[in-house]
Amino acid sequence: MFAMRYKYIKKGEIVIDTYLNFDNELEIYKDTFNLTDQFIAILDNQMSIKVANKAMLDLIHDEAVNIYDTPYWELPLWSHSIELQNRIMFSIESIYLGEEVKFEATYPDINDNIKNVEVTIKPVYSDDGDIIALVAMGYDTTSAKEAEKKFYTTQKQLATFFEMGVDGFLISNLEKPVNISTLDPDESFIIAYNEETIVNYNSAVNDILELNAENLCLGSLFKKADVDFDTIKKHWFSMIKNGYVRFMIKFQSKRRHTKYVEFTMVPVIEQNMYSGSYSTIKDITLDKQNEERLFLMANFDYLTGVCNRRYFIDSVNDVLKNNTNPMCMVMFDIDHFKSVNDNYGHDTGDIVLRTVSNTINTSISSDGLFARMGGEEFAAIIYKDMDETIKIIENVLSDIRKLNINVDNSILKTSISAGITKIKPGESFDHFLKRADSALYEAKRNGRDRYSIQ
């Protein structure tokens, strides 16, 4: 039976009320749910929708759609953005770490007008501390977004929606404005850096930056991220020149993970007198983490952790465009690898692939770029001439021979063969790849555990 600790909802928080059994007692609370304009949905611990209030159902405005038992990320509201669906789906990881998840999105209303919504998903705990349900609460933030567009005009307009969004807003002020048309630019910046002070901000600023922004000067705002003086100076000059600047900082959060924050700053200038700036601050950590996750999935081999064939080819071609130094191409193949799979099983084969791959990658280190091309075949570009490359490959073969791979309390030995070729100026990737591949098979024909050169 699906049961949870019911929590009545006030904007911005959840307070424990009483024990609620969905099957029998939720009807009592439906009227209360339906009186609010918030878009409320109760989800199970797999994010499937179990209960939705009237505002949520009206938001869908499609009677043919049955949203119950549908994963929250598959709602028609989010179907226009695969990126948003993925973000909601991945957010369950954060929720199970005890975090609440917030995101913003757009949706078409019944008249096809584009509206904005801000959604918070919070965990609901049992008496034992287990997450047994989730509460998704949405707010129509269309008016706030429209107000945000006018943010850059006056401080008065900004104050009307300071606390409405998930982003941070702040205003910094220079008590004695400087004339940027007559004063030396470097001197103008130093005055702003040391004397421009934050005079107004919302609570999200402190939450995102994990500091107390009250009365901070402009220079102190970035100390947590160790942004150097020259970088801040470059951003400030860009803001003055272009009318705004957008940049990213990163720092270690209190939870000891990397936090990414995007700043957008707009100067306040009247008759060449600079008197401060408006800033928006956005936590883009989840976006960066998803970008990094997708980058790794697209460009690195899931089993060995080294780059894959596509990334390797693209990287080599990029290196060749801007490099006239001698370089060599090397192909590797694990000797008798099929017999490892046949005799010990594919799990052992995977261990051999990871161990050999890690050993070669470590041996080559910064002298080249190493990749898994597929199966038991690997490749490397070495940023050295042929003599130096041969020394590196001899060390690689020696390191592989020394490996003792522990399999079911026994030691498995292995070896590799390698084919080396010099990359000629202006030569295409396919040409020197075929030559290295031919050299590799020559080494295998000559007895394996050796290299050959073509």
TrEMBL record:
Residue span, GGDEF domain: 325-454
MF GO annotations: diguanylate cyclase activity
Gene3D superfamilies: 3.30.70.270, PAS domain
Pfam families (alphabetical): GGDEF, PAS_4
Stretches assigned to the PAC domain: 101-153
Superkingdom of origin: Bacteria
Protein name: Diguanylate cyclase (GGDEF) domain-containing protein
